[in-house]
Amino acid sequence: MNQDDRGLATRLLHGRGANPLGAVAAPIFDTASFAMADMAAHKRTVEDPSVHDYYSRVRNPTVAALESTLASIESAPRALAFASGMAAITTALLALGRRGGHFIASDQLFVNSREWLAHDLPDFGCEVTFVDLTDPTALEAAFRPTTRAVFFEEFTNPLLDVLDIEAIVAITHDHDALAVVDNTFATPVLIRPLELGADIVIHSATKYLAGHGRVLAGALAGSGPAMDAIAVMRRRLGTIITPHNAAAVMEGMSTLELRVDRASATALRLAELADAHDATSTVNYPGLPSAPAHELARRLTGGHRFGGMLSFALLRPERKAAVYDAFTRFIRATSLGDVVSLVDSVDDPNVLRLSVGIESADDLLVDLEKALDAAL
Ligand SMILES: Cc1ncc(COP(=O)(O)O)c(C=O)c1O
After folding, report:
1. Residue 324's domain is classified under what CATH number?
2. Closest atom of ligand 1 relative to the 206 alpha carbon
3. 110 lines ligand 1 (CB under 6 A)
4. Secondary structure E strands in 132-211
């Protein structure tokens, strides 16, 4: 863990460090390659490609500025930025799983992560066991001598279950494996998994970190030989982020804490409204005192904000389309973590998921009430 004791908002704004030219906004180094000073510099680069900026598939100063900010906010010695969240996940698991590795994965994962683990990784010679990570006995029983890592989202997508990072990390480390956490939903504002003992934290930076729905981006932070292996795999696969998108993510991150604060406050009010409405059978929001994972969420987050993601099940699944169609301020779209509010129809036949943006809360409350009325 790094020793940066500045507040999160300061790290979000100044984590990239000083710019040698004094540029206040991060300059975009929009170039594929960089000139070599002489043959000696060329030789040094061939020996160790990580020492110089020489080719933007390997290193780039704009990407490095983003990575330094990411490392700072996730309390990590090192971070790597990727072309998308899936680029981060696939590159990391390929690097960790090489030569017949076994993974334990949460049985509640974002659909593409689950499909990659279930269908693609086995084709690359890896084995995967899906486990209900709320059950420590099931986790214990799943380890093998070849287990490399346990992969999970601590706020799950789309049901907003909360997993106990510290308990999972303790069992994982007993078996000499790595705990790899997808922190996309919670963001470093709510939870910083590395401070709770996890080894690697991953983000779809497309979501809250970038925050404006404009770019695809991924991020990963951690320490040790695993990060070296992932950096080499990223270089070979070419899954690094572009300099332009790196600058867009940095710009988004500068307001991350403000946006998550605002979205959390509105999401709690929306969850209370949905909970009290006759159309819903269940409301999944860890900030509701009645939520099964509320106490755990309080412990992990510090207890005063619970994020902008919520989902709910309808009593009458046959009215799901009518509710979805009735929203006028929530935009019907996939993705999440944007400044605008989004409603998404997830796999489950009676569940809708909301990503709460930063619009005026009263407008969103009116919109949700009207949409739920369409289910009655
Ligand atoms: C929890 C989670 N992880 C990873 C991803 C993948 O990110 P991306 O779409 O940036 O590849 C998503 C996308 O929705 C997600 O919700």
Report:
1. 3.90.1150.10
2. 10
3. yes
4. 147-153, 178-182, 200-204
Contacts of 304 by beta carbon, 8 Å cutoff, 6+ apart:
none
Q: How far is the CA of 86 from the centre of ligand 1 (A)?
A: 6
Q: What is the CATH number of the domain that holds 232?
A: 3.40.640.10
- Structural domain range at position 266: 256-373
Strand partners, 310: 354
Of the candidates 105, 135, 132, 110, the residue with the CA atom closest to the CA atom of residue 121: 105
Q: Is 206 in the pocket of ligand 1 (CB under 6 A)?
A: yes
Q: How far is the CA of 40 from the centre of ligand 1 (A)?
A: 42
243 & 201 share domain: yes
pLDDT tens per residue, range 117-130: 999 999 999 999 99
Distance CA 295, CA 290 (A): 10
Task: Count the alpha carbons within 13 Å of 213 in the hemisphere toward its beta carbon.
Answer: 13
Residue 103 within a domain: yes
CA of 325 to the centre of ligand 1 (A): 24
Residue 36 CA, chain-centre distance (Å), reads 36
Give me the sign of the Cα torsion angle 246, 41, 78, 97: positive
pLDDT tens, position by position, 175-234: 999 999 999 999 999 999 999 999 999 999 999 999 999 999 999 999 999 999 999 999
Separation of CA 38 and ligand 1 centre (Å): 42
Specify if 1 maps to a domain: no
Give mean pLDDT, residues 280-305: 97
For ligand 1, whether the C-beta of 158 sits within 6 Å is: no
